[in-house]
Design brief:
517 residues; Phosphorylase Kinase, domain 1; Transferase(Phosphotransferase), domain 1; 3 domains; 5-stranded antiparallel beta sheet; 4-stranded antiparallel beta sheet; elongated; disordered N terminus
């Protein structure tokens, strides 16, 4: 009787533990501490990364990649979100247990919001502890009971291992974040790179951003721009090239795409995007050191609107060609508008862009992305209507802010030209939090200040009206890119005709003619 009770208690205890271990659900990871040594130098890193939805049957994790210095201090390279690998399942703490890290690099991952705030290296010893010299003594009366208990334990362990192998076979996941071998083959180099193949020599860093650094580089006799994505931003690299490679995507006011390359392997892998190089750089950087004439303002605004209109437009394919879908940029700002030598603009940086193919939904798109100061009220509020038109109107809100930047640095205004400032910099400072922008833009409905003397110039007055209609709080009331382009073209022609009229009436020929009458 006593033996039966012991066996029943043991079976119940072990069985409950096995069942409990099999049904424990992992902590849901929605955000992680973020750090990128590439963008940390520029001071524009976000402290928190909001993880994209993992999708059905998958999990998000947080990770840390760091190196140990000779003095034992830690040198963090990357922190952020990480998608679906079984090694990270049910890890509440971020701990690297490797005994001999490769290249002195350490990596750990965990589950749970901000679980990568603290991390450590705790190597597991490879040599087993020395065997004990003590010989256990077992009473003969208990040996039979022990054999039965061990037998039941062995059966339960075997059953657990079999079930685990079945579940692993059914739900096998790829190591998407830091693969040892790429599960998806990388796209081949573009035909243009095949024709002009040669070593690309990196010359100097021109800009640093959220997704990596942009280099001025040399490809044979041609200057090119190379945008280098670190491994954790591989998805943005893939998104950009997918956008660039679309049929009918080529346009004078869209940055010219030349090709892609992958450099290095595993943790040292880098993903290169090669495009045309524009010496004047971004519109934001140009405005910091230069003012604009009225004609330059119109040229930039018109070409920028044309590029945005082409991006937003769905273009049917000819014969057997696929159609170009409508595309929302989702991070439109003056930093992502480049200036050519002829002072026309081209739009760049499609790492957050989204395509709207006919008959397909937007999917599990995360709505609150982009640069905070350029976020539309509905984005800050988290109240986006997930339709193509809603995303395009978000771009147009940001377009209104860029128009404000242009007007603020135009010499045609009847008054002193202030130093360059970003939109809302006067209201919320240079590094606003999400809460700052929500309070200012959503609750108080603040917009950048339009100076009274700007409206003394008829062209600038019309431009002020245009920007106000672009950043309207009601998304449905905002102008489209084609409407902005048409308005700028009208102002350009109107101002040119006024200049011609003045020249004709102030010429010596007309003075003599009037005097003879």
């Amino acid at each position: 009787m006593e033996l039966s009770i012991v066996l029943l208690l043991l079976f119940t205890k072990l069985g409950c533990k096995f069942i409990q271990a099999s049904v424990i659900s992992s902590s849901v990871t929605t955000k992680c501490e973020h750090y990128n040594s590439t963008c940390a130098d520029s001071g524009h890193c976000d402290d928190i990364a909001v993880c994209e939805p993992a999708g059905e049957g998958k999990r998000n994790h947080c990770f840390v990649l760091w190196a140990l210095n000779s003095d034992g201090s830690k040198n963090v390279t990357l922190k952020g979100c990480f998608l679906n690998t079984e090694d990270c399942y049910d890890q509440n703490a971020c701990v690297d247990k490797s005994t001999s890290p490769k290249n002195n690099l350490l990596f750990c991952c965990c589950e749970g919001d901000m679980c990568n705030t603290n991390f450590t290296w705790a190597p597991v010893p490879t040599e087993p502890p020395p065997p004990s010299t003590a010989i256990p003594t077992i009473e003969a009366s208990n040996s039979f009971e022990l054999m039965i208990i061990l037998g039941f334990g062995a059966v339960i362990i075997i059953m657990g291992v079999v079930l685990w192998m079945i579940m692993r076979a059914r739900n096998k996941h790829n190591f998407n974040g830091l693969p040892t071998s790429d599960p998806h083959p990388l796209p081949p180099p573009s035909p243009m790179l095949d024709q002009i193949r040669g070593p690309i020599q990196l010359i100097e860093i021109k800009a640093r951003g959220r997704f990596g650094a942009v280099w001025r580089a040399q490809l044979k006799s041609e200057e090119v721009a190379v945008k280098i994505f670190p491994i954790q931003d591989k998805q943005s690299w893939q998104t950009e090239q997918e956008i660039f490679k679309l049929t009918n995507m080529t346009h004078p006011n869209i940055l010219e795409f030349m090709g892609v390359e992958k450099r290095g392997d595993n943790l040292q892998a880098e993903f290169w995007l090669i495009t045309a190089y524009h010496e004047k750089g971004s519109l934001c950087d140009f405005l910091k050191g230069h003012t604009l004439t009225w004609n330059e303002l119109c040229k930039i605004a018109e070409s920028m609107a044309k590029g945005l209109m082409h991006l937003h437009e769905a273009i049917p394919g000819k014969s057997n060609e696929p159609s170009k879908p409508a595309i929302a940029h989702r991070d439109f700002k003056s930093k992502n508008v480049l200036l050519k030598n002829d002072m026309t603009a081209c739009i760049a940086d499609f790492g957050l862009a989204i395509m709207f193919e006919a008959g397909k939904s937007c999917g599990d798109t995360h709505g609150q992305v982009g640069t905070r100061r350029y976020m539309a009220p509905e984005v800050l509020e988290g109240a986006i209507n997930f339709t193509p038109d809603a995303f395009l109107r978000i771009d147009m809100y940001a377009c209104g802010l860029v128009l404000w930047e242009l007007v603020s640095r135009c010499k045609a205004q009847d008054g002193p030209i202030p130093e360059y400032r970003l939109p809302f910099e006067e209201e919320v400072g240079p590094h606003p939090t999400l809460e700052d922008m929500q309070e200012s833009v959503v609750q108080n409905k603040v917009r950048p200040v339009i100076q009274k003397h700007w409206r003394n110039h008829p062209g600038l007055a019309a431009m002020c009206d245009t920007m106000e209609e672009c950043w309207d709080h009601d998304a449905e009331a905002r102008l489209s890119a084609s409407c902005v382009m048409e308005r700028v073209m009208v102002q350009t022609k109107y101002q040119q005709s006024m200049i011609n009229w003045r020249i004709e009436n102030e010429s010596p020929f007309n003075t003599q003619k009037d005097g003879s009458i």
